[in-house]
Amino acid sequence: MITVFMGSIFTRLTEGGPVFMYPLLVLLVMCILLLGKAFLSEEQSQKLAKIVSHLSLFALVWGFLGMMMGLISAFDSISISGGTSFEVLAGGLKIGLLSPSFGMLVFLIARLGLLGLTLKNKNN
C-alpha cells in the first residue's frame, strides 16, 4: 500500500514538470529540516526562522512560475495546432495546476512550522 502511495506521489511530481516540482520537494525537505533545527536550537531559532520564511515564499512563487511557463507553452501548442478538444485542454490545465498547488503546500507547511516556533519562543 505504501508503495502505491509513494508511486502516486512521484507520478504527480513528474506530471507537474520535474523542473519545477523536484526543486519544490527539495525546498519542502529543507524547510522541515531547518524548522526541526530551530525547534532544538534556542540561539539560532530567529535566524533559521527567517531563512524558512524566505524559502517558503520562494517555493510559492516558484510553483506559480511553473504554472505560467506551462500555460504559455500549452497555449503556444494550441495556437499552432489551430484548436484542441476540451479533454486535452482540461488535462493540460490539471497538469498546469500541480506546481502551484505543491508550492502552496510547501508554503503552508513552512508557515505552520513558523507559527509553532513563534508560539514556542513566546512561552519561553
Overall mean pLDDT score?
87
Helix content: over 70%
Shape: elongated
Q: Write down the domain tally.
A: 1
Count of DSSP-assigned helices: 5
In angstroms, what separates the terminal alpha carbons?
Answer: 42 Å
Number of distinct beta strands: 0
SSE-based structural type? mainly alpha
Radius of gyration: 18 Å
**Proportion of residues in β-strands:** under 5%
Q: Which series of helices and strands comes N to C?
A: HHHHH
Unreliable stretches: none
Describe the largest sheet.
none
Concise synopsis of the structure shown:
With 124 residues, the protein is an all-alpha fold. It has helices spanning 2-15, 18-40, 45-81, 86-96, 98-123.
List keywords for this structure.
124 residues, mainly alpha, 5 helices
What would you say this structure looks like, in words?
The structure is a single chain. The protein is mostly helical. The protein has one domain. It contains five helices and no strands. Helix 3 packs antiparallel against helix 5. It is elongated, with a radius of gyration of 18 Å.
Write the layout of secondary structure elements.
Elements: H1 2-15, H2 18-40, H3 45-81, H4 86-96, H5 98-123
Helix pairs in contact: 2-3, 2-5, 3-4, 3-5
